[in-house]
Amino acid sequence: MDSLTQITLGAAVSVAVMGRRTAIWKAALWGGIAGTLPDLDALIDHGDPLLNMVRHRAESHSLLLLTLFSPLLARLVSHVHGQTALWRRWWLALWLALFTHPLLDTMTVYGTQLLQPFSDHPYAVGSVFIIDPAYTLPLLLGVIAALARGRQGSGLRWNLAGLVLSTAYLGWSVVAQQWATQVAHASLQAQGIAADRLLVTPAPFNTVLWRLVAITPSHYHEGYHSLLDRDPTIRWLAHDRGPALIGQHANDAPVARLAAFTQGFYRLRETPDGRLHITDLRMGQEPDYIFNFDVGPVDAVGTEPPSFRASRPDTDRALAWLWQRLWGADLLPMGAALANDDDVR
After folding, report:
1. Could you give the CA distance from residue 138 to residue 136 in angstroms, rounded to a whole number?
2. Which residues pair with 250 in a beta bridge?
3. Nearest Cα to 201, choosing from 230, 172, 181, 229?
4. H helices of the chain, where?
5. Residue pair 212/199 in contact by the 8 Å Cβ criterion
6. Which of 8, 48, 133, 290 gives 20 to 30 Å between its CA and that of 82?
7. pLDDT tens digits, one per residue of 272-318
């Protein structure tokens, strides 16, 4: 999730655990710090943009390593504030602030390596977008109320209410995702699309409109389903995945690395000047994707470091499309302008 959300979650958890045992601002401050510490790994340069992507949310998001770090942080905090008698309570508060960070990240589609150093599997539920005001606002308002009212019980109750509401929203997101998944599977079967895997993840800033990506050996099919759609029929837009290039380069290090991290949701394309581009299909929408990399000449992949080739949509156009489609408007995916008519089902 975004930094503001993680800071706010850490603060809310710490305030809830510490209660009246210390000043609210102290609990919020250190909880917020603990809530953002795991993301400091973004400052580490692993040598190239692709490695930086797949090594983000790795060791710093390990549940084991964060658990081992938490008593050290608690000792430091309790000593700074002269509250050594409370260090166990600080330990619980800061452990939860650290621990909930990767758990929340796992709810997004990016991929979080919870079991480092034993496994580099990127866990991803994908039921919430990386920025979702409906999740963040209850937490933020609860923390603000607690800070404003100090140790008064009403402020702590507001903080607890924010935690309960935000957690309930995560539960709702999973239920909504499962509903969209069922609709997507039914649509694929009805339209004769034999998909090897299916991605169901929310469109930006909400859990009403869902982006769907179905992978076949040769293509990826993009579609959308809003919970407000009157007709559950999904218009799938087919795009070439680069099967010949995948067969040729699947074992090349940068390709294999991103293929594993995306769990198969990627494409390969050769540019007119003979460069090979690999794209993470999970984040973005056709034709614009955040994580797109140039991995070198097609006939010499890996001989030079990958370079970042992000593509972003026109914000005004994208938001206008998102708002209309969320409310159930019968619109083709934005990438339809680049597809042939017979690619739309």
Report:
1. 6
2. none
3. 181
4. 3-18, 24-36, 49-55, 63-80, 87-106, 133-149, 153-190, 243-249, 253-261, 315-326
5. yes
6. 8
7. 999 999 999 999 998 899 999 999 999 988 888 999 988 888 888 89
